[in-house]
């Protein structure tokens, strides 16, 4: 099945700023938001966007999702009401850790502790705010959660089970308990530098953020005269069945997800104009990911421009797949690939690759302007999206 | 925890909590009944939990029924002062 689904709205809150436009423009300008080994949404002020009650009843990850959704829904032209019956609209918001608590102490519990922590709370809040009454839930495939949400929604719209979907991912896990755990696991960069694919890479840097997209059938979007910003063309997923945190060293399962996504989209490796990698900057991830890409794309990989935007945003975990889909769609639509910030000495052991070291114009492929974004989560969850310019 | 708690201090806390729950500030008067304020059961539970945390006083949620903001504040201050 190769029917694409239309993207009619996007919204994001990331360390690079509030809004999808500032995200794309700062990436293309070659900027990073990582300061002192940390990526925070410092420009985000919940009080500016949310009522005091919304602020109180939503953990930070869900607050970020609400603000990102507001931008996406507005852009889709849904501000004055839903264009489809509410029960035909899905809402899926992925997250890795949900409302990560500031304190793990039982004595700090309040009646709101559970509703704030629930991984599904962002989806629930979005439904409440917009009156969405179709199925809603959280995907929770760690760092693949945001991509999973988009993939699941695309399938449902294709099959006619839903008319539209508000989907994405959100994460705000930069609390002491979580940061310390990542540091002890050896995943966090001890130098505070995130250099994906660099010869001297030593880990990732924490980020936080949310990315929300409005998806509709192409026919539905056209019928209501909505502007189509891009296409979700294909989705592929697999599981490593290997290890709780380490990727499968042979790269075979993730490669299978990539192949499935291409087949689902009806696209050949040579059709890809850009790859937004998972590219966390950990020695293990980058090596295994490139192995998977090479297995899936073969000789074509060497000449496809690729970059990781995590050096600019930090690792957004469950929001990553959604934010990076928004980044990829902006690159395809705008015709410019964002660079891997800070990469000057690529790791030669990764083989021949076309690293985007500074923003570069994309060359349309034989089938149009098509890109791939892959997300690989702790637990061995591999989720891959094939995206296209409108 | 202070040895004694003034009704005014409890009132301030209740006011802040209710504002955070989305209640219009001007409707929060000592004479206002909780039943008439725009709060739900989760807001009430959160208010009781905050009072417990701050003043170490447990107020059964049922006691909010037919009680004014001022009466609750006085009740908490009295219990905390014992």
From TrEMBL, chain A:
SUPFAM superfamilies in the cross-refs? Thiolase-like
Q: Which UniProt keywords apply?
A: Acyltransferase, Transferase
Q: Tell me which PROSITE patterns the record gives.
A: KS3_1, KS3_2
Write one Pfam family the protein is assigned to.
Answer: Ketoacyl-synt_C
Q: Where is the signal peptide?
A: none
Q: Where is the Ketosynthase family 3 (KS3) domain?
A: 1-389
Family in the record? Belongs to the thiolase-like superfamily. Beta-ketoacyl-ACP synthases family.
Q: What is this protein called?
A: Beta-ketoacyl-[acyl-carrier-protein] synthase family protein
Q: Which organism is it from?
A: Streptomyces ureilyticus
Lineage here is: Bacteria, Bacillati, Actinomycetota, Actinomycetes, Kitasatosporales
UniProtKB/TrEMBL annotation, chain B:
The protein here is known as Acyl carrier protein
* InterPro entries per UniProt: ACP-like_sf, PP-bd_ACP
Q: Which PROSITE patterns match?
A: CARRIER
| Residues covered by the Carrier domain | 5-82
Give the organism the record lists: Streptomyces ureilyticus
């Amino acid at each position: 099945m190769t029917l694409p689904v239309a993207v009619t709205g996007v919204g994001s809150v990331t360390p690079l700023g509030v809004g999808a436009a500032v995200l794309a423009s700062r990436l293309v300008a070659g900027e990073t938001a990582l300061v002192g080994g940390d990526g925070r949404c410092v420009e985000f002020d919940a009080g500016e966007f949310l009522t005091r009650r919304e602020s109180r009843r939503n953990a930070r990850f869900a607050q970020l999702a609400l603000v990102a959704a507001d931008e996406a829904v507005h852009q889709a032209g849904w501000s004055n009401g839903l264009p489809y019956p509410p029960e035909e609209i899905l809402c899926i918001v992925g997250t890795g850790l949900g409302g990560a608590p500031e304190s793990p102490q039982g004595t700090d519990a309040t009646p709101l502790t559970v509703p704030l922590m629930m991984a599904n709370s962002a989806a629930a809040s979005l439904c409440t705010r917009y009156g969405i009454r179709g199925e809603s839930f959280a995907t929770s495939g760690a760092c693949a959660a945001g991509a999973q949400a988009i993939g699941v929604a695309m399938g449902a719209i294709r099959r006619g089970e839903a008319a539209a979907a508000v989907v994405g991912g959100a994460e705000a896990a930069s609390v002491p308990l979580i940061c310390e755990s990542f540091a002890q696991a050896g995943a966090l960069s001890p130098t505070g530098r995130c250099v994906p694919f660099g010869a001297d890479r030593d880990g990732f840097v924490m980020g936080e953020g949310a990315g929300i997209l409005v998806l509709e059938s192409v026919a539905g979007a056209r019928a209501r005269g909505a502007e189509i910003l891009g296409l979700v063309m294909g989705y592929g997923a697999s599981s490593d069945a290997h290890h709780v945190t380490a990727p499968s060293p042979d790269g075979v399962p993730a490669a299978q997800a990539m192949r499935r996504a291409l087949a689902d989209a009806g696209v050949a490796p040579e059709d890809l104009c850009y790859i937004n990698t998972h590219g966390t900057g950990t020695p293990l991830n980058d090596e295994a990911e490139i192995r998977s890409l090479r297995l899936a794309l073969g000789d074509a990989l060497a000449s496809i421009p690729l970059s990781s935007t995590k050096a600019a945003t930090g690792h957004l975990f469950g929001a990553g797949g959604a934010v990076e889909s928004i980044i990829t769609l902006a690159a395809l639509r705008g015709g410019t690939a964002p660079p891997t910030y800070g990469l000057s000495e690529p790791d030669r052991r990764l083989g021949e690759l076309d690293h985007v070291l500074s923003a570069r114009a994309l060359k349309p492929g034989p089938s149009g302007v098509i890109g791939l974004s892959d997300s690989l989560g702790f637990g061995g969850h591999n989720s891959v999206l094939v995206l296209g310019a409108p | 925890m202070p040895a004694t708690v003034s009704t005014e201090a409890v009132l301030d806390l209740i006011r802040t909590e209710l504002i955070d729950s989305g209640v219009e500030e001007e409707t929060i008067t000592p004479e206002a009944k909780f039943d008439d304020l725009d709060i739900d059961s989760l807001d009430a539970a959160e208010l009781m939990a905050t009072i417990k945390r701050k003043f170490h006083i447990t107020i059964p949620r049922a006691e909010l029924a037919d009680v004014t903001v001022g009466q609750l504040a006085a009740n908490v201050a009295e219990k905390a002062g014992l």
